[in-house]
Amino acid sequence: MPVVTVRAGNKQGSGRFDTLVRRATEKASDLLEQSGRVLVVYEKGSASIYYEGEGQEPLRAPAPRVS
User: Fold this and answer.
1) What are residue 42's DSSP bridge partners?
2) Distances from the Cα of 12 to the Cα of 9, 16, 21, 26, 34, angstroms
3) pTM of this prediction?
């Protein structure tokens, strides 16, 4: 089962978790367009997103700009 890892970034405190959840949600939504199911596993500072696929790489979304 393919996996994508999303990291929270360099923010401190609760903002870091909010950023991680937002990024994981965006990536999981993108993967749901290609796959029937995804599983998000949150870890400290990152999230692993497992999805059904046949070894194919997910479509790359442009990196979000930091303001």
Assistant:
1) 47
2) 9, 6, 14, 21, 33
3) 0.69
pLDDT digits (tens, 9 = 90+) for 16-28: 888 899 999 999 9
Give strand pairing partners of 39: 50
Residue 52 token pair: 């059904």
39/25 Cα distance (integer angstroms)? 11
Q: Please give the full DSSP string across the chain, using - where no structure is assigned.
A: --EEEEE--S--THHHHHHHHHHHHHHHHHHHTT-S-EEEEEETTEEEEEE--SSPPPPPPPPPPP-
